[in-house]
Specification:
The complex is a heterodimer of chains A (238) and B (226). By secondary structure, chain A is mostly beta strands. Chain A contains two helices and 14 strands. In chain B, 10% of the residues lie in helices and 25% in strands. In chain B, the strands form two sheets. In chain B, strands 1, 2, 3, 4, 7, 8, 9, 10 and 11 form a nine-stranded mixed sheet that branches. Chain B has a two-stranded antiparallel ribbon with strand order 5-6. Classes of the chains: A mainly beta (238), B mainly beta (226). Strand 1 of chain A pairs parallel with strand 12 of chain B. The structure holds fe (ii) ion (FE2).
Chain lengths: 238, 226
């Protein structure tokens, strides 16, 4: 039996284009996408595991022989599919601004300091139960040119492959109760019914005394459709 | 507080205008649909994706020196017909035998040594992507036939709030392309042409147009909902 993956209804997904986010204007396609039935190419996907990461990739606070500036935090959670099943052994890639809201990237030139001990890159592989954990610095907010006095709420970029091409997800994790949510078109492009799923939860219990605050965030990838289709041995689907 | 001091908005509140008319006040107590967690909504990669999404061997679906290796190349354009210099594409495909490097392929694992199936290429600096790979074989289409050789492609960029999905087919597979269920489902040859890579000096080339640009005679690439 080959799996098929659930299609989330459009009203619960982030649209590719959003009027308030100016860069979508010339980039988001204007034509309606064509439905692609899930065949072998779509229900398989890159299997990327331990050889993609080193132990040091889970801790973003210790780079170039020193400690990063800022509020030390633990970001942890589980990667699940929409049936609640853990997604084990899956690559999780993150990137983020430093405590001052500056990215170590040639295009980011707003006047905030770089941190010699922070490069903003993290990678882990989920464990048998789909769990992941990073130690990092709480990113700062940063300005951008989308509209007058536009600021991005603090966020961490996440990229996941899951176990199939259909499950590929790139998104951003936010922090609770950020006062910048209201004016941010990227946050508000997410449907109101789904927005809360992009916001992490402060977790006092997992915070480490005298060391780090903790934020918990579970990531849910598309699960399998309930009605798998039949296949015979040569992979020809009946 | 006496009733005559209550505002009209309070006095007028009763159950005559609520939204559950004609439906039971409470559910039946039984789940009528499978329980599901809502999926995490996607977002844009933004302009700084290179920090987190760079692999030193990103473009290597197969390693340098692999016999039969080809380059898949192309440029990514926006709706002005300008190059997109800060995007990224990922490719996923079968090996030359039509098998995937994945446990859900029911016919068994990939038979080509060193073939990982996935490629990743940023479009910096010139808006061009490039992956070194092997031309895929044909893959069952689930309806008793075979699909034409193809590569699934995800496109990511600032200004795209979700990834775009498209496919690369090959111009020198005309017979296979003619019977491919996905290509046949497209409305016309102009749409199909946006997915068909042309032979080049070291492999194949296919440009991706996020939007069409009439002034420059560019058609929007066909994108898929998966
Ligand atoms: Fe960002």
């Amino acid at each position: 039996m080959l799996p098929r993956y659930l299609r989330e209804p459009a009203e619960r997904r982030t649209p590719v284009a959003y009027a308030g986010y100016k860069s979508t204007g010339l980039r988001a396609p204007l034509r309606t996408p064509v439905d692609l039935p899930h065949r072998l190419t779509e229900i398989t996907g890159p299997v990327l595991g331990e050889d993609m990461v080193t132990a040091a990739d889970a801790d973003l606070t210790l780079r170039q022989g020193g400690e990063a500036q800022g509020q030390r935090i633990i970001v942890y959670g589980r990667v699940l599919d929409s049936d609640g099943r853990p997604v084990p052994h899956a690559l999780v890639e993150i990137w983020q601004a430093n405590a001052a809201g500056r990215y170590r990237h040639v295009v980011d030139n707003w006047p905030a300091p770089l941190d010699p001990h922070f490069d903003g890159l993290g990678r882990v592989v989920t464990d048998d139960l789909g769990r992941y954990e990073f130690t990092t610095i709480k990113p700062g907010a940063y300005p951008w040119g989308n509209h007058h006095n536009a600021w991005r709420p603090a966020h961490i970029h996440f990229s996941l492959f899951g176990q199939a091409f259909t499950q590929r997800l790139v998104t951003q994790m936010y922090f609770p109760d950020d006062p910048l949510f209201g004016q941010d078109p990227i946050f508000n492009s997410m449907p109101t019914t789904a927005r809360h799923r992009a916001v992490s939860r402060f977790d006092l219990e997992r915070s480490q005394p005298n060391w780090a605050l903790a934020f918990q965030w579970d990531i849910v990838l598309r699960g399998q459709d309930q009605t798998p289709f039949e296949t015979d041995d040569d992979g020809d689907v009946a | 507080m006496s009733a005559d001091r209550l505002p009209p908005q309070v006095l007028a509140a009763d159950e005559s205008n609520d939204r559950r008319q004609g439906t039971p006040r409470r559910g039946t107590g039984f789940l009528t649909e499978p329980f599901r967690l809502g999926t995490t909504p996607s977002s844009t990669v933004g302009p700084y994706l290179a920090i987190g999404l760079t692999w030193p061997d990103g473009p290597d679906v197969v390693a340098e020196g692999t016999p039969g290796a080809i380059w898949l190349r192309g440029r990514v354009f926006d709706g002005n017909g300008d190059l997109v210099p800060d995007g990224m594409i990922e490719t996923w495909q079968a090996d030359p035998d039509g098998r995937f490097a994945h446990p859900d392929d029911p016919r068994g694992a990939v038979t080509t040594p060193g073939f990982r199936g996935v490629g990743r290429s940023h479009t910096v600096p010139g808006g061009e992507y490039a992956v070194r790979t092997l031309k895929p074989g044909r893959v069952p289409d689930g309806e008793g036939g075979l699909q034409a050789p193809h590569v699934d492609v995800s496109v990511f960029a600032r200004g795209l709030l979700d990834r775009l999905v498209t496919r690369i087919y090959f111009a020198d597979e005309a017979a296979a392309n003619a019977e491919d269920a996905v290509l046949r489902s497209l409305p016309d040859d102009a749409s199909r042409a946006t997915l068909i890579a042309q032979p080049s000096a070291d492999g194949y080339v296919l440009d991706i147009h996020l939007q069409g640009c009439t002034a420059k005679g560019m058609d929007e690439t066909v994108f898929f909902a998966v």
